[in-house]
Write a structure and sequence with these properties.
single chain; 260 residues; mainly alpha; Four Helix Bundle (Hemerythrin (Met), subunit A); 3 domains; three-stranded mixed sheet; two-stranded antiparallel sheet
Length: 260
């Protein structure tokens, strides 16, 4: 923009610095943005604010990568896809959220149907674990429950404290899920221990907001149908098992069979 000071855009950087300091103070904790704005925008914000106050504008700067589609920036592709489009295509808000947050912020978010299906599959594994924990009845008290609860929380917080390493955090969660599934199958955990594990997952979910703790899947009728279906599968009555699956899905309960 031609100005008395040359061909520059002075207001862009001044406005951002002024608005930030007005609402967040002369120095605030975290400034987030896209990597492409490091220069010149953020460097100018820093220069302007420091010239005014003599203080750093932010303690930490977090620059995320871009969303890629077909190897290109999503902004540069001809076909524009919105969150509303993904929901219309059948993906839930929870599935979209998982896809968006499951990648480290320093790496590009890759858009593809395959990535969204991966998110759906991963959430299905979490849902089945929570369902199984909620359904635990008779079982042996797990003697190492305190260590397991510690591992659930420390594995998550330790990864997130390492530059928000969400990949390591999710890996830790799914490692615990595999261990829990084995304990449930072997009946080496009781209802009290299962309840404590669910509370530990609620702690994680206060940050991620990806778990589903709805009681809908655990009402008496659903439990009865799930047990009938499991019996049909044990007896290799696949027609009956498929029929019960369809009935459950008509009630809004998705059933997926996965190996532990």
């Amino acid at each position: 923009t031609p100005t008395d000071w040359g061909n520059v855009r002075p207001s862009w950087h001044i406005q951002c610095a002024a608005i930030s300091m007005k609402y967040l103070g002369e120095t605030f904790d975290i400034h987030t943005s896209g990597r492409e704005l490091v220069f010149p925008h953020h460097e100018n914000e820093i220069a302007i604010s420091k010239a005014l106050t003599g203080k750093p504008l932010a303690r930490f700067w977090m620059h995320c990568e871009q969303v890629l589609s077909d190897g290109k920036k999503a902004d540069d592709t001809k076909e524009k896809i919105s969150i509303a489009d993904l929901i219309e295509a059948g993906y839930t808000g929870r599935e979209i959220r998982y896809w968006l947050i499951s990648n480290h912020y320093r790496k590009p978010v890759v858009f593809s149907a395959e990535r969204l299906e991966d998110a759906r599959h991963s959430l299905g594994r979490l849902d089945m674990c929570i369902r199984a924990l909620s359904d635990v009845g008779a079982g042996e008290p797990y003697p190492e429950i305190d260590q397991l609860l510690y591992d659930i929380k420390s594995g998550f917080t330790g990864a997130m404290d390492d530059d928000l390493n969400i990949s390591a955090a999710l890996s830790s969660i799914f490692g615990i899920v595999r261990k829990i599934n084995v304990l449930i199958v072997d009946k080496k955990i009781d209802a009290g221990g299962a309840s404590k594990i669910i509370e530990a997952f609620r702690f994680i979910d206060s940050v991620l907001n990806i778990f589903e703790f709805s009681d809908r899947s655990f009402d008496p009728e659903v439990k009865r149908l799930l047990k009938e279906r499991e019996k049909a599968r044990e007896e290799k009555n696949w027609a009956l098992a498929d029929s019960i699956r369809e009935q459950l899905e008509s009630m809004g309960v998705k059933v997926r069979d996965h190996k532990i």
